[in-house]
């Protein structure tokens, strides 16, 4: 009996343990939720800067509704287009594994949703935690059509830092007094740079430093001593931003829905498309402090919006005193100079993964992409259509190809259905001509060639891309965003990338994981990823004026072996062109 028991017990506990493992495994799925939403794209009058404007919104909300989900959850979002424009929505940073149909860029993974039509986006969040966001991805609709997509840890799993008392999302935006769609239209007609914005906003509000705005300034209440999580998103159309809170330090804990090694800073720089999560502790005398953001501008001789948006950090114990009229105007934080590249670069370089990560080595595809602006010469320089510098039209390119979006089909639909003539797959892996990219570039190299060229990647290939900014027209920080992927940022520098000395300095230990990274102005940045997501994925500058001028390309990642490595079939309601 004794012996029997001895032999049975370990087997028995093994079974119990196994059963327990199966139950936890299943319950982690049982806990995953599916969230259903209806997003009605519709015009709505809102008052900003003393005037009523009719803007395009989701469900009449500006900014749009916040999506709060957990890692592992699924989303089903029915989009009803009740506006007068074609529209698509993009879930910025969601990997959309094998599911390009839910990604959203207009004429890339889908044809636009026509006025009066609907389309339902269905996707699951797989191993991503932190802050992402969603936005319109056709023309300049994203100026007002955007909102947060906050991904919390699975039920029962904690943050890798002590749980904050509160969480606030701060969407930094750009406000145009004119209809943004008309601003773009005019720029595309004249060939000149589009008008700059009239205000920056925090959660849709310009704040105290603008006319007719202080009543609506966003207020963030905080209790003395407590720590809160701020999810900061740069949803501005065309501008990198500095962000700071008067008298307070912030601890960066995540970017682009990936955790980072915590580090403290007084100021953050955030490019369009990027997100930054910071912890903020109320460790200052109870009072009101301004939260502020303004431009980090790297383009030379280019006009930019130099105004400052503010919200107010309000210590709760200080608000009573305000009522007695003792409180004065909140203190403004010191923001870096508009062109403070040293501060911007130091901040970005401080972002690291929390611990050692598996960076792909033994690269299969070594790509070198020049990114920058250009000028198209006009035959009649005095024409109203040639109001760019010296009677030209602005353009932009990667490796001298200025990306042209198809008009009669989407790339993904053409690829899936085998429709010829929509794109070619001869995007050059290196620029057609080598030159001193950041030097004084010969005028003959300023005019790129238009084309709808894709670069083919084998499933599972290990890819390195070096983005090299050029000084054509101007050097500039271009926030490059890759759809369908996150990548490791392994290195960056100024001047021309040197393939024989720079790779030795790459960080293969703890590089940050991101979906959007700026090329240094007059410099370069290197990224690595494994092409494990089949489909067609857009890569572009997240400054929307540059995107429209052609600072984009797309990867065609081929299917691997079997269903689990292949693009899923398109949904039946996918819009046709
Ligand atoms: Cu957030 Cu292609 O964009």
Q: Which structural class best describes the helix and strand composition?
A: mainly beta
Percent helix range: 10-25%
Bound molecules: CU-O-CU linkage
Taking Cα atoms only, what radius of gyration do you get, to the nearest Å? 25 Å
Helix segment tally: 6
Count every beta strand, where a strand is a DSSP E run of 2 or more residues.
32
Molecular shape: globular
In which order are the strands of the major sheet placed?
A: 10-9-12-17-14-15
Content of β-strand: 35-45%
Mean pLDDT: 94
Largest sheet: 6 strands, mixed
Query: What gap, in angstroms, lies between the N and C termini?
Result: 76 Å
Low-confidence stretches: 1-17, 22-26
Cofactor: Cu cation
Family: Belongs to the multicopper oxidase family.
Pfam families: Cu-oxidase, Cu-oxidase_2, Cu-oxidase_3
Main location: secreted
Task: Summarize it.
The protein is mainly beta.
3D architecture notes:
By secondary structure, the protein is mainly β. The protein contains six helices and 32 strands. The chain has a six-stranded mixed beta sheet with strand order 10-9-12-17-14-15, with no helix packed on it. Helix 5 links the parallel strand 22 and strand 23 (449-451). The radius of gyration is 25 Å and the shape is globular. It starts with a helix and ends in a 20-residue tail after the last strand. CU-O-CU linkage is lined by residues 90, 92, 105, 135, 137, 273, 481, 483, 538, 540, 542.
Task: Note the topology.
Layout: H1 2-31, E1 34-48, E2 51-58, E3 67-70, E4 74-81, E5 89-92, E6 118-124, E7 130-136, E8 146-152, E9 166-175, H2 180-190, E10 199-202, E11 219-222, E12 227-234, E13 240-245, E14 250-255, E15 258-265, E16 267-270, E17 275-281, E18 288-296, E19 308-315, H3 316-323, H4 341-349, E20 365-377, E21 392-398, E22 401-403, H5 411-417, E23 449-451, E24 454-457, E25 462-469, E26 479-482, E27 487-494, E28 513-514, E29 516-518, E30 523-530, E31 535-541, H6 544-549, E32 552-557
Parallel strand pairs: 1-4, 3-8, 9-12, 11-19, 20-25, 22-23, 24-32
Antiparallel strand pairs: 1-2, 4-6, 5-7, 7-8, 9-10, 12-17, 13-16, 13-18, 14-15, 14-17, 18-19, 20-21, 25-30, 26-29, 26-31, 27-28, 27-30, 31-32
Bound molecules: CU-O-CU linkage.
CU-O-CU linkage binds at residues 90, 92, 105, 135, 137, 273, 481, 483, 538, 540, 542.
């Amino acid at each position: 009996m004794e012996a029997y028991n001895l032999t049975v017990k370990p087997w028995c506990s093994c079974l119990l343990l196994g059963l327990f493992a199966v139950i936890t495994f299943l319950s982690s799925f049982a806990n995953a939720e599916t969230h259903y939403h209806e997003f009605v794209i519709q015009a709505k009058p809102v008052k900003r800067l003393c005037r009523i404007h009719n803007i395009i919104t989701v469900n009449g909300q500006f900014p749009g509704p916040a999506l709060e989900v957990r890692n592992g959850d699924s989303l089903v979002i029915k989009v009803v287009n009740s506006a007068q424009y074609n529209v698509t929505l993009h879930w910025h940073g969601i990997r959309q594994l094998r599911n390009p149909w839910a990604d959203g860029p207009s004429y890339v993974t889908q044809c636009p949703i026509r006025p009066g039509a609907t389309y339902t986006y269905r996707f699951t969040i797989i191993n991503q935690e932190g802050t992402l966001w969603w936005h319109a991805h056709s023309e300049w609709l994203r100026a007002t059509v955007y909102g947060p997509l906050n991904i919390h840890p699975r039920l029962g799993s904690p943050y890798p830092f002590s749980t904050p008392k509160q969480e606030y999302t701060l969407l930094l935006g750009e406000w145009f007094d004119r209809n943004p769609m008309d601003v773009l239209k005019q720029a595309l007609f004249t060939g000149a740079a589009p008008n700059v914005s009239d205000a920056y906003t925090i959660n849709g509000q310009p704040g105290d430093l603008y006319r007719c705005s202080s009543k609506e300034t966003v207020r963030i209440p905080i209790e003395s001593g407590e720590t809160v999580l701020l999810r900061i998103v740069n949803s501005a159309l065309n501008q990198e931003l500095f962000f700071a809170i008067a008298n307070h330090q912030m601890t960066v804990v995540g970017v682009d829905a990936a955790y980072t090694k915590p580090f403290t800073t007084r100021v953050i720089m955030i490019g369009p498309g990027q997100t930054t999560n910071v912890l903020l502790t109320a460790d200052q005398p109870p009072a009101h402090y301004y939260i502020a953001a303004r431009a980090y501008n790297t383009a030379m001789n280019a006009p930019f919006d130099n105004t400052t948006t503010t919200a107010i950090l309000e210590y709760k114990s200080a608000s009573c005193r305000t009522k007695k009229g003792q409180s004065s105007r909140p203190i403004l934080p010191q923001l870096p100079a508009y062109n403070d590249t040293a501060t911007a670069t130091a901040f970005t370089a401080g972002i690291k993964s929390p611990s050692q990560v598996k960076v792909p080595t033994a690269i299969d595809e070594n790509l070198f992409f020049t990114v920058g602006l250009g000028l198209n010469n006009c035959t009649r320089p005095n024409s109203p259509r040639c109001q760019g510098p010296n009677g030209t039209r602005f353009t932009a390119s990667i490796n001298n190809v200025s990306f042209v979006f198809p008009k009669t089909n989407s790339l993904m639909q053409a690829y899936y259905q085998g429709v010829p003539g929509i794109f070619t797959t001869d995007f050059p892996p290196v620029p057609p001509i080598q030159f001193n990219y950041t030097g004084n570039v010969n005028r003959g190299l300023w005019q790129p060639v238009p084309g709808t060229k894709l670069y083919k990647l084998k499933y599972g290939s290990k890819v390195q891309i070096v983005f090299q900014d050029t000084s054509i027209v101007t050097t500039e920080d271009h926030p490059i965003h890759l759809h369908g992927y996150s990548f490791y940022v392994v290195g960056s520098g100024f001047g021309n990338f040197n393939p024989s000395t720079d790779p030795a300095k790459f960080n293969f230990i703890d590089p940050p994981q991101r979906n959007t990274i700026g090329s240094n102005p007059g410099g370069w940045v290197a990224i690595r990823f494994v092409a494990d997501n089949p489909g067609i994925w857009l890569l572009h500058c997240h400054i929307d004026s540059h995107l429209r001028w052609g600072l984009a390309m797309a990867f065609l990642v081929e299917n691997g072996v079997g269903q689990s490595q292949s693009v899923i079939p398109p949904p039946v309601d996918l819009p046709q062109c």
